[in-house]
Amino acid sequence: MSRRLAAEPAPDNIVSAAPRPGESRPAVSDVHRGPTGPIEVPSRLLMGPGPANVSPRVAAAQTLPLLGHMHPPFFRIMDEIQQGLRYVFQTDSPYTLLVSGTGHAGMEACIANLIEPGEKIVVGNKGIWGARVTDLASRYGADVIDLQTPPATAFSYETLEQAVTEHKPAVLFLCQGESSTGVHQNLAGLGELCRANGTLLLVDTVCTLGGIPLHADDWGIDAIYSGSQKVLGAPPGAAPLFFSERAFQKLRNRKTPVASYYFDLNLVGDYWGWFNKRFYHHTGMVSNWYGVREALAMTADEGLDHLWQRHGNCAQMLWGGLSSMGLEPLVEVEAERLATVNTIKVPEGVDWAAVNANAMSKYSVEIAGGLGGTVGKAWRVGIMGYNATPANVELVLAAFRDGLRQQGRL
Amino acid sequence: MSRRLAAEPAPDNIVSAAPRPGESRPAVSDVHRGPTGPIEVPSRLLMGPGPANVSPRVAAAQTLPLLGHMHPPFFRIMDEIQQGLRYVFQTDSPYTLLVSGTGHAGMEACIANLIEPGEKIVVGNKGIWGARVTDLASRYGADVIDLQTPPATAFSYETLEQAVTEHKPAVLFLCQGESSTGVHQNLAGLGELCRANGTLLLVDTVCTLGGIPLHADDWGIDAIYSGSQKVLGAPPGAAPLFFSERAFQKLRNRKTPVASYYFDLNLVGDYWGWFNKRFYHHTGMVSNWYGVREALAMTADEGLDHLWQRHGNCAQMLWGGLSSMGLEPLVEVEAERLATVNTIKVPEGVDWAAVNANAMSKYSVEIAGGLGGTVGKAWRVGIMGYNATPANVELVLAAFRDGLRQQGRL
């Protein structure tokens, strides 16, 4: 066997950079050559409805060396993420994972897998997220019952009971926290209702998971999706997902294939060990998942009770300050107000956008305007994860105070 | 107007953490509380087919402060990414963006948007990626013509010409670099062929973009998707995408809605400014895109000519060393060998897995086995981006030499 030096060039016939037969090799165009120089990113305190800022620990985790998406040490990290998800969802179910995409990817994964063409879904539509599920479920061939409420209100149990008993849908969709209106949906009793009617209970927790109470098993929820970039305090890009045993059985007993490949949980679940092995489906989002793992570890360190209390306390403090300025909640019913996304009525004659612009330019603080039906009617202030501290709440209040003073309102 | 202190608690009727009517609040279960402690990530040199390691500059960018996904400074970063993509794709087309997902998400976005149910696609299927497109296109209702080649070979122009003229498909799919076999597909003349037959030319460049020549405009390509985690040298999670004007017109003139919401490029494109505004579709992957922006800036700094040459030189050096050990390429035809994923025949009687295991345990170097049809028949060595250096090639060669010696083969 030859003993030539390793660095010796390969014989010409091994690999060559010469053009392929018939291939044209135009000169490289420099017309769009760029970008140049280092990236420029201003520092901002994100107190809108998300993304929120992440902790230095989470940020730093993303710089750790990349692992292969099928390496055993990476599988151990995926296992740890699943453990952390079980804790935040409060479930014993083995069926948790991260969908490789943002919250909307979690939404699509749930709809694509839980609904077969022609099946009914009752969409509890109280804003932007209900409207998006309505759109999405239609694309997947569902028979959509679009249930709406008056602006900035939640559904009563009785309204939902009537819809579920009348339609006996395959799925009932509800959004725990409708971030466009700041409405909290009470989920009490819905698990039992859905079970009695052969319905799966699907809940959006994108802006709530980790910030307000949720008990997936005890409340009889069948499927949940969320986002990484809100209360959990990781960067955007991962959608935590939970399936109950009932949801899993629905998936396994489908009569039609899942219409999407990327979101097919038979395949994604196989990568996450739902079937007791590990099969390559796609390349996991390695660095992002490092961040999610650290965010979940910080959640476990703090404990859910403490975390929920911290969010509640910050929301209380926020409203104490806002009340002192004469500002009022958009959501009329106290029990329907969300601690994680607080919606504040824009008083008659106040230029809401000027308040936001001043907050950003003077304090580098994000206060958000409305979304969808609440544009021009409300401000939205997020109390989320790493950002949920008294210091940050004070800064938001200072920004409101300054903005209102500029308009002669204080 | 009231002048109470901001920190004063809100009146009880503003927001409360009390249970909602009828809501059960079980104690928080600590059964799955975790994970605990800091994340543990070993340091490895990833010389398989990807992901590859990222540069310190790219890794550090991910720790920069998060911006909102609709903030003007973030839109500027998205603009810079689109400029960088135009350069690496070598196109003047305004239609570039990152799909918020891995390479497979790019694949699904292309199929979902370019094919309407019942339309024909000719899939140039020479391994795993062709097979996946076949599966995926079937889910989207395409009439799939599954064109196959003998193992580890590319398609001849004549074969493709026959298929396209016979079927006049809506789309011809080809994979520039089939990473399961290490085969490079010559794209010469296919743009003209497709234009003459009313066909859109769709090319997978997941393992090739930036590593070997590609000229989207000059070669008449209509749609391309790629992955961030290979030659580009960013973490996994973003799929660069390119549409020509023809592909864009196909999208705008669809008779049926795109079956996926998350991948609907009418909406995703709207977020990226394809329609001269910015409309919220989903939350962009802020930190990940910072990394992509820096990776593209490093690409522009180096220049495509130099980058392609560096990959070719490293592949030459790799084969020089492998030849000296008596190892041979899996791909018979010289013009069909890929510089970015090199496939090496496993000699009769050699335990390939033991070589890989030794490389990992002794040198922390990843050498990959085969995938799909090449399992047990080939090793795969990636020459990708930040990892494409003589030092890394030497380490791979040392690992091969040591592994073969252990089996008495050197």
TrEMBL record, chains A, B:
Record keywords: Aminotransferase, Pyridoxal phosphate, Transferase
Protein residues bound to substrate: R380
Pfam families named among the record's database cross-references: Aminotran_5
Entry's Gene Ontology BP terms: glycine biosynthetic process, by transamination of glyoxylate
Stated name of the protein: alanine--glyoxylate transaminase
EC number: 2.6.1.44
Family of this protein: Belongs to the class-V pyridoxal-phosphate-dependent aminotransferase family.
Organism: Apatococcus lobatus
A GO CC term attached to the entry: peroxisome
Cofactors named for this entry: pyridoxal 5'-phosphate
